[in-house]
Design brief:
This protein has 82 residues and is mainly α. The chain contains 1 helix and no strands. The protein is elongated and about 90 Å long.
Length: 82
């Protein structure tokens, strides 16, 4: 009938091990080690990421405000018009 996807080729001298999904624990140490690890990684990278992002946001807002001011008409240019 044909070969199944997992049996497409015979590979010699390679040993693979697997564990049944029924023998694994889905979330081992999730609350005791997982959440503190997330907090540790967040605080370690926050001060590396936040200052450049803040500077880039300030530059972006400054550039937008300068652009909006540049699009306005200057009333002094039209004082002598009738």
């Amino acid at each position: 009938m044909g070969r199944h996807f997992g049996d497409l080729a015979k590979v010699r001298h390679i040993i693979t091990y697997s564990l049944s999904p029924f023998e694994q624990r889905a979330f081992p140490n999730y609350f005791s080690k997982g959440i503190p690890n997330v907090w540790r990684r967040f605080t370690a990278s926050f001060f590396k990421v936040a200052p450049p992002m803040t500077v880039m946001y300030l530059i972006y807002t400054w550039g937008n405000s300068v652009h909006e001011q540049g699009k306005r008409k200057n009333p002094a240019d039209f004082e002598n018009d009738e």
